[in-house]
Design brief:
- The chain has helices at 2-21, 23-30, 36-55, 63-83, 89-95, 99-110, 117-133, 138-143, 145-164, 170-185, 192-196, 201-222, 228-234, 237-250, 256-273.
- It has one domain (2-273).
- The chain has 15 helices and no strands.
- By secondary structure, it is mainly alpha-helical.
- It is 77% helix and 0% strand.
């Protein structure tokens, strides 16, 4: 029974990675007209409303876990969105994947998790693949401080989910997380842009509904049965999906080194999740 649930959890995380990977082009296009804070705020606001309706008002035990998850996810979101102002969708999607390496380290020290040797090997080769995919933008890879902060925020978020998700209601936990993210945006929000955002209703609804609501629900469900290290490696597919969408929809070009990186990422994931 557990094995069946694990398979379902793996598929849930892969689908979440696909939804996450689909956002980069949408967000980059929105940033032509809206500020990063406005985009992130609206995504969180939509998700918090949906999670409130689906899970109800959470009790006190959800506040601390939700606050920590919301804080680290907000750090990841706001820095990644800010970074998209100056970098390509492929570079942003791939370099963010540095959390593949950081997550096992954070998990071991924060959650005292026993990480298997194959997770360290898979994470190392997974990041090697991501590096090869992003090699076209080597200057941005090392120069983008926002991306490094983003990767750290996402890694810590995955570790916090691992720490708290096992006995918690997903929707209630996600309501706190999403509300925290929206509140943290308020001091930096350009309120005059909120009226203008109605012109971009469909992409904003896509981000709020399918990504901040559906994809994060899938993530938390998957992490009930998958450890943080393996989950982060599966989320490495986010960069692969971002890459493929960039290639097929906006004509971004890859060379043989980039495609080798894709193959390494896929084999790294297979190596870790296979029985």
């Amino acid at each position: 029974m557990f094995k069946k649930k694990r398979v379902i959890a793996v598929n849930a995380l892969i689908l979440a990675a696909l939804l996450f990977g689909s956002t980069f082009i949408i967000v980059k296009n929105l940033l032509d007209s809206l500020s990063p804070t406005t985009v992130v705020f609206l995504r969180y606001l939509i998700a918090s409303i949906l999670f409130l309706f689906s899970g109800g008002i959470p009790n006190k035990e959800y506040i601390k876990p939700g606050l920590l998850m919301g804080l680290f996810l907000w750090i990841g979101y706001i820095t990644q969105t800010q970074g998209l102002l100056t970098t390509s969708t492929i570079n942003s999607g791939i370099v963010t994947g540095f959390y593949i390496v950081l997550t096992p380290i954070f998990s071991k020290f924060i959650n005292k998790t026993n990480i298997e040797k194959k997770n360290y090997i898979g994470s190392t080769f997974g990041f090697l693949g991501i590096f090869l995919i992003a090699i076209n933008n080597i200057d941005e890879l090392f120069g983008n401080l926002f991306t490094l902060i983003c990767a750290s925020g996402y890694a810590l978020h995955i570790v916090m989910v691992e720490r708290y998700i096992k006995d918690k209601n997903i929707s209630k936990l996600m309501f706190i997380q999403s509300s925290v993210g929206a509140l943290l945006c308020l001091p930096f929000l350009e309120f005059n842009e909120l009226g203008k955002s109605i012109d971009y209703l469909y992409p904003i609804m896509f981000l709020g509904l399918l990504v901040n609501f559906c994809a994060f629900y899938l993530q938390l469900f998957g992490q009930k049965f998958i450890n943080a290290s393996t989950a982060s490696l599966l989320f490495g597919l986010e960069g692969v999906f971002a890459l493929l969408i960039g290639v097929f929809y906006v004509d971004e070009v890859l060379n043989m080194t980039n495609w080798l990186g894709v193959i390494i990422v896929l084999f790294s994931i297979y190596y870790v999740i296979k029985e």
